[in-house]
Amino acid sequence: MYCVVRWLVAAAVAMPFLPIHPSRAGQPAAVQAVSVADAPLLQASGLTSTFAAFLDSRLAGLVATTKDVQQRAWLAQLKSFYASRSGAPVWVGAKGFNTAAAAALAELARAGDWGLDAAQFERPVLADGTHDPVLLVDAEIALSRSSVKYASHARGGRIAPYSLSLWLDGPTSAVYATAVMIDIISVKDAGAALRDMHPKSNAFERLRQAYVSMRNEIAAPKPIDPKLILANGPAIKAGQWHPDVAVIRNRVKVPAVAGLESQFDEKLANAVDDFLDRAGVRVKWGIIDDRVRREFNRPPPPPSKDDMLRIQANMERWRWLPRDLGRLHIWNNLTEQMTRVVKDGQVIHEERIIVGQPHTQTPVFSETMKSVVFQPEWGVPPSIKVTDLLPKFQSGDFDVLDRRDMRIIGLSGRELKPERFNWDKTDIRDVGIYQRAGDSNPLGYVKFLFPNKHHVYMHDTNARSLFTAGERTFSHGCIRVRNPKRLAEIVLGEDKGWDAGDVERLLKDRKKPNNKVELDRPIPVHNVYFTLVPGDGNTLIRLGDMYGHDKRVVQALSGVPALRIAENDPALNLQREMDEAAPPLVRREQAAAERRRRQSQDDDDD
């Protein structure tokens, strides 16, 4: 897991300049995607070339004076977009805002319905009949900038996940201003174009509806329905019938077989007991008396703001995913410790998995599975190299490799003896140590590779008893799969048309270590972290926040600086532990390299 740290700075810098659509790979191509308009397009708005010239000049000035890298990039892209239209506006005409602007402004005002913060988006105001080109240009630019920013937030750009934890990858594509504006002018309803920027998943929509409902209820708590008020009456015991039972059944959402709604059955008695327990009231089980009735007559407490923020955090993580998950894809929800194979929107296979421990977490990211490896060798992770193998090497115990059927492989592919290294000066993290395939190999007999900067993958295991545990957080970051043979059958069956017999032969062939089968059509793999997932009806199932990502995202959405949130990032803590365990000479070299990097960064800033 150590290797994750070294990739993130470059990714964070490069990301703002990636296009939304793969076909729009750079600014010139995106600009050419717009049909270059001639003077009539500008004139159709009732404006003159004065407007176009001032618009271009104003954008050029903003590009020159804006310090924020992302904002400057968007402004430059907007300048190119308007140039391709001969300066024709999108939002204004000779007398003020047009209908597109009205629709966009209304949608920006409703940003809260999508879990966004409407205050983040400037909504310019123009008086009716305004014809001052300066005011028109400023309003045009402001609304375009707000639309691009809205698109960015809708697609996960509100916070940088990797700034909160090195085990949280960000959105796979950044927002390109020209592409956003093309999308807007390509439809009749600019508001609909903005709404289209949000995730399309049914699960996201379920979260959104719950969020809006909860937000409205917090703002205006619902009074209890007069029809649900219970008058004093006789005590009702479990098994008895009474009209009050149907009312209470409605309150605790416990349905009954038709005709039995008024019977106080055991299932309802347990639900009443749970209701009273949450209210801090203790009464004898299976009794509904006037004290119980008084508790049910109290207005239900409004939802907590923490619950609403948790929904918002889960919505935000949906924004980090690719817009196209893949017709066939693998879905690993780390909080459930379950893997699912999804085809055409239907789950065709699901199974238990084991994921990383809290201090060696399985990262959240999306990649594509490109191969299946039978009889795999195990690349020992940096944490085990540093904490387990290094002390043994430093004490002269070189036989540990033979005892564990391990070997060192150099860059040339040749096997190297541990005695040839000076382990007081060597960073063991950079040394390739592998365990041979076999019964004792932690990867079992098959692994599924989706190359990624975290160097994690899915695999079999020789510790299969751990799958019976409720919370299965035992690994060093990789994902262990129960019944990997079935997963291999599905993957290779979908990709190559192989049957179970083909897979069985490869599993039994122990003479070919690292027998890699390349996939003809790579399969997207999504390691996700959702603590709220759709249940029956309109319910949401709540799962544990085992890695603390809910807390991190909620803090970020609430305005807590990312640097403060990341102070306790276990990925950074692991990196520090690895660095501290390195030999003194290596640490000095690392410190010198860090000083050189910072000096170079300071020079660039100057």
Would you write up a description of this structure?
The N terminus and C terminus are likely disordered. 42% of the residues lie in helices and 14% in strands. It is of the alpha+beta class and 606 residues long. Helix 4 packs antiparallel against helix 5, helix 6 packs across helix 7 and helix 18 packs across helix 19. It has an eight-stranded mixed barrel with strand order 5-6-7-16-14-13-8-17. Strands 9-12-10-11 form a four-stranded antiparallel beta sheet. Strand 6 and strand 7 form a beta hairpin.
Summarize the structure.
With 606 residues, the chain is of the alpha+beta class.
Summary keywords:
23 helices; 606 residues; alpha+beta; 8-stranded mixed barrel; disordered C terminus; 19 strands; 4-stranded antiparallel beta sheet
The average pLDDT value, as a whole number, equals 88
Low-confidence stretches: 1-37, 601-606
Major beta sheet, specifics?
8 strands, mixed, barrel
Strand content range: 5-15%
**Count of discrete alpha- or pi-helical segments spanning 4 or more residues:** 23
Distance between the termini: 34 Å
Major β-sheet strand ordering: 5-6-7-16-14-13-8-17
What is the CA-based Rg, rounded?
30 Å
DSSP E strands, number: 19
The amount of helix comes to: 40-55%
Given helix and strand content, the structural type is alpha+beta
What is the global morphology?
A: globular
